[in-house]
Amino acid sequence: MSSAIDSIKNSVISCMNCDLSRSRINAVPGEGDWESDVIFVGEAPGRNEDLQGAPFVGAAGKILSEALEYAGFTRRHVYITNVVKCRPPNNRRPSKQEVSSCSGYLQKEIGIIKPTVICILGNTAFGSLLDGSEITKNRGKLIRREDHLYFVTVHPAAVLYNPDLRQVLKDDLKSLYGIVEKIKKGTPVQISE
Ligand code: URA
Predict the structure, then answer these.
(1) Ligand 1: which atom is nearest the Cα of residue 80?
(2) What's residue 2's pLDDT?
(3) I need a labelling partner for 156 at 20 to 30 A (CA). Which of 41, 54, 104, 127 fits?
(4) What does the DSSP assignment read for 117-142?
(5) Would the CB of 56 count as within 6 Å of ligand 1?
(6) Does residue 187 form part of some domain?
(7) Number of folded domains in the chain?
(8) DSSP string for 79-121
(9) Per-residue pLDDT reduced to its tens digit, 102-141
């Protein structure tokens, strides 16, 4: 276990940087393999995550796990985290201020893990990490920004409202798996700048 990741975990658990710390049951630090080639970044914990203190353990988590396995990833061998580490009341989208008071944790996670690719799950992570919007128009792309490569796809919870997105997410993660394999072998991949 990385002691640096452990130390972020402890800071997240005791964090009082914003008002979400008052309404949470548990803060939800990132979880998984800190040696993973990919970090998956969601929006914020929901009810089940708040109860259990772990990311993506509810309905959206089940969809994410299914898509990961389909694509060739093993859930416990990747690292999964969120832009915001505490549940916004009633699962509302986190505010800009909440995102900015939490963003240091994600930046530290990325700095320690140094993933080959950061996988953005949905609009909140897209907006926060790349200042992007309209995920459905940009999904499936590999984007280079500064020192990092980002892969953009839909949020697993979007599948709950639009069942057609289940296969989209699965196919995107399969394509991501192939991209990571190619990068590791030194084979060129198509990158949008
Ligand atoms: N949605 C997210 O964005 N993150 C979770 O951890 C669960 C649901």
Answers:
(1) 6
(2) 80
(3) 104
(4) EEEEESHHHHHHHH----HHHHTT-E
(5) yes
(6) no
(7) 1
(8) EEEESSSSPPGGGPPPPHHHHHHHHHHHHHHHHHH--SEEEEE
(9) 999 999 999 999 999 999 999 999 999 999 999 999 999 9
Give nearest CA residue, ligand 1 atom 7: 56
User: Residue 43 corresponds to which tokens in the numbers above?
Assistant: 């929006």
Q: Is residue 169 part of a domain?
A: yes
**Distance from CA of residue 143 to its chain's centroid?**
16
- Is the CB–ligand 1 distance for residue 45 below 6 Å? yes
Can you give the residue range of the structural domain that contains 66?
2-182
Is any atom of ligand 1 closer than 6 Å to the C-beta of 128? no
Looking at ligand 1, which atom is closest to the CA of residue 60? Answer: 8
The CATH number linked to 162 is 3.40.470.10
pLDDT digits (tens, 9 = 90+) for 123-133: 999 999 999 99
In a domain? residue 192:
no
146-189 residue pLDDT tens: 999 999 999 999 999 999 999 999 999 999 999 999 999 999 99
Tell me if 193 is assigned to some domain: no
